[in-house]
Amino acid sequence: MANLRFDPEGDGAPAGTHLTRAERHRLLTEIEDAAPGQRPESMLARAQQALQGGNVEQAERLLSALEERAPGTPGLALLQQQLHEARRQTRRESNRRAAEEMLERYIQQRKKSLATLALETLLELVPNHPRREDYERWIDEIDREAELQSQIEAEVAAGRDALDSGDWREAKRVLALLRKLAPGSMAAETFARDLERAERSRAEGASIEQRKQRIEALLAARQVNEAEVEIDALAELSVPKVTLDFLRKRLAEIRAELCTAAELESMESVYRQHLARHGWQAARDVAAAIGELCPTSDRAGEMFDEINRLEAEERRQKSVEQGIATLEDFIAQGRRAEAELALKVLRGLDIDDQQLKHFQQRIDRL
User: Fold this and answer.
1) C-beta contacts of 91-100 below 8 A and 24+ residues apart
2) What per-residue confidence (pLDDT) applies to 59?
3) Residue pair 271/287 in contact by the 8 Å Cβ criterion
4) Span 306-345, pLDDT tens digits
5) How far are the Cα atoms of 64, 154, 169, 191 from residue 185, in angstroms, in the given order?
6) What does the alpha-carbon distance between residue 22 and residue 28 come to, in Å, rounded to a whole number?
7) 23 in the Ramachandran plot: left (φ > 0), alpha (ψ -120 to 50) or beta?
8) Distance, CA of 122 to CA of 171 (rounded, Å)
9) CB 159 within 8 A of CB 175
């Protein structure tokens, strides 16, 4: 026993140590068991009491001390046999609990072979185990569950084939069977969602087909505005981009066809009148109208280019006329330096070389 220092004025606990009630009781018991003045009959009675109370360790200490002091004490041999049997029972109980834990773990993990082996081990320890029938039933259920899982997987595969082929009756049969075999299972609910999604897609597909037929009818009737509205609505559905591009291309082609020669000729005439009057903005408005009427035609772009070119030429001509007038004024006033600068500006406006030479000669005579 370890050397402990006690506080003589304390509660009997080792100095500097706080013992629980159980630890204090065990320490006092060990001190009492080791006391040399103990009578053999008292020690035997205490050992028997400890053994009956399940305290095998205390009983073993008492019997060991008693065997050293009074080996011939009546009842000692019998109590030693009882102690030996208690040890065996403790080991058997520990082995039983370990075997039960292993068996239940294998059953939970659905490992039939290992569960069967664990049950055999448990029955060797406890042949008449009270839960033997439960364990055997649970092990048998592993096979049934495996068979059920295989059937469920086969039905799910058949159901997916039915969805792919559009066999809705077969798909619904599979769903009903899955809900019967495994109600509320993930397999059944997942397939139910897949079937619902497929049916929704089928309904949407029918709607798409009807809308496409309506668009074709509108295009055939040359109702381009109504057809455009329907195409925009079709774009909100799950329609391939290539389909939308094709319909929009046809719409553009029909619109171009509707731009008749008479309409274009009339607008061209108005356009030319504006050009003749240098009405550049009015001419641009006509070009924009032709662009809206015939968006696939290049004519509107050609008109805008022509307007820009003529307007730029007009601005250049006005700059030339203004520059010449200014130069004439400087020459008339004999202001040579200003006249030279004005001539330099005129050279940048790309006017006739002969005219430039004429102005230069006049400046040289100043």
Assistant:
1) 92/125, 95/125, 96/122, 96/125, 96/126, 99/125
2) 65
3) yes
4) 999 999 999 988 988 898 898 888 888 988 889 889 888 8
5) 63, 15, 21, 10
6) 10
7) alpha
8) 47
9) yes
**pLDDT tens per residue, range 230-282:** 888 888 777 788 888 898 898 888 877 776 666 788 888 999 999 999 999 99
Nearest in space to 84 (alpha carbons), one of 51, 110, 127: 51
The domain ranges of the chain are 21-106, 153-258, 313-364
238 contacts: CB under 8 Å, gap ≥ 6: 201, 204, 208
Q: Are 201 and 230 in contact (CB under 8 A)?
A: no
Helical packing angle, 132-165 and 112-125, nearest 10°? 170
Spatial neighbors of 171 by CB under 8 A, at least 6 apart, are 159, 162, 163, 195, 198
Phi, then psi, of 333 in degrees rounded to 5: -90, 0
- What pTM did the predictor assign? 0.31
Please tell me whether residue 364 adopts helix, strand or coil conformation. Answer: helix
DSSP code for 74: T
Measure the CA dihedral 97/100/105/108, to 10°.
-140
Which residue, among 126, 130, 134, 128, has the nearest Cα to 107 in the 3D structure?
134
What is the DSSP code (8-state) at residue 127? Answer: T
Could you tell me the sign of the dihedral formed by the alpha carbons of 274, 278, 284, 285, in that order?
Answer: negative
Burial label for 51, CB within 10 Å (0-12, 13-18, 19+), is buried
CA angle 344, 348, 351 (to 5 degrees): 100
Q: Report residues of the chain scoring pLDDT below 70.
A: 1-38, 41, 44, 47-48, 50-51, 53-60, 62-73, 75-80, 83-86, 202-206, 259-262
Place of tokens 């559009």: 166
Give alpha helix (H) positions in 128-185: 132-165, 168-181
pLDDT digits (tens, 9 = 90+) for 34-49: 455 467 767 767 766 7
Helix axes 40-52, 76-108, angle to 10 degrees: 20
What is the pLDDT at residue 132?
A: 86
Query: What's the pLDDT at 162?
Result: 81
